[in-house]
Amino acid sequence: MAKRAARKTGTAALAAVLLAAAALAGCREPAPSRESVSAAAEAEALPRRTFGIIYPMADVYYEAVTESAARAAETASARLIIKAPDEANLEQQIRMMETMIKQGVDGIAISPIDSEALGPLIDKAAEAGIPVICFESDAPDSRRVSYIGTDNIQAGERMGRAIDGLLKGRGMVLVSTGQSDSMNLRERLEGFLGYIHRETNIDVLEVRYHQGVPEQALADLEGMIDDHPHFDAFVALDFVSGAASILVWKAMGLNRYALTFGLMPEIAEAVRNGQITMAVSLNEHRWGALIVEHLLKACEGEEIPEFLDTGISLVDIHAIESGEGMVETEPSD
Please, are residues 237 and 177 in contact by the beta-carbon 8 Å criterion? Predict the structure, then answer.
């Protein structure tokens, strides 16, 4: 009898333990299925934001910007859509902007070919809740949230001072630039000519606009040299004109001063080889990361500076040989 009672007591205790375990298991979350784990991983892998970047034209000059933006986007788990007309073409840039607005991207960065023409589209993006940042060239009358680049009037004046130093205040200069409607190029020319006329006895023999067409830039430079063979220096207010001067200096074996805006490997190599005397870098290698960083902030509703001054760097043979070719020197002064 005692043994039978003991067995009953043990059975009851075991049943109580099993019931408690079952109740505890019922309180726990169910183990995730393979499908739910996979869905969570896919959601984690999806980009947090999609940003569009629109250049004024397709050129190797913008490769450093793209690389910088891509690194920043990867870190932020963001996706980039990068577009550019084959050559500087306002209508194409307008269509690219319209497409990105229709796609509902989270933010857009644009270097506007024509600030006035792109202004209404920038405003349209803002009305759709898409923040727009301008870089390289500004559209200050639009609803863009920020401008990344330099003060182009002051940058033009800085180029004027550089030529002044080389020519000791007198001489004859040829100038080439890109689109007549581009705000950044108009301002660079304004700053350059203002300094030259105000502070020096240098004669600007001619200014030509190639409108963003490399072949025209080359033809313009050759034509100016034919018309003014005794010139002392050439100034390129954009990278397309600078690239054209490299070809002409090589072909003609010229030993004249040649200065340009913009720094890319081709320009750095020309400085090293003596075809380019000096390049005024706008620290373009910083633009991409700043674009992504500040579009992210704008999407989160954070305040960002209206003007992010990336400064300028003067790059000559000494800077190249010392390894300081991409070292930032100063905000635009």
Answer: yes
The helix (H) or strand (E) run that includes residue 263 is none
pLDDT along the chain (333 residues), means of 10: 41 40 39 43 63 97 97 98 96 98 99 98 98 98 98 98 98 98 97 99 98 97 98 98 98 97 94 97 96 98 96 93 59 50
Q: Are 31 and 250 in contact (CB under 8 A)?
A: no
- Report d(CA 124, CA 97) in Å as an integer: 10
Q: What pTM was estimated for this model as a whole?
A: 0.83
**The domain made up of 152-281+314-321 is a member of CATH 3.40.50.2300:** yes
| H helix or E strand, kind and range, residue 264 | none
What radius of gyration do the chain's Cα atoms show?
30
Contacts of 22 (CB under 8 A, 6+ apart): none
User: Which of 262-266's residues contact partners 24+ apart within 8 Å by CB, and which partners?
Assistant: 262/61, 262/238, 263/313, 263/315, 263/325, 263/326, 264/60, 264/61, 264/63, 264/64, 264/239, 265/60, 266/60
CA distances (Å), 93 to each of 24, 160, 288, in order?
63, 31, 19
Q: CATH assignment of 47-150+285-302, given 3.40.50.2300, 3.20.20.80, 3.30.70.100, 3.40.50.970?
A: 3.40.50.2300
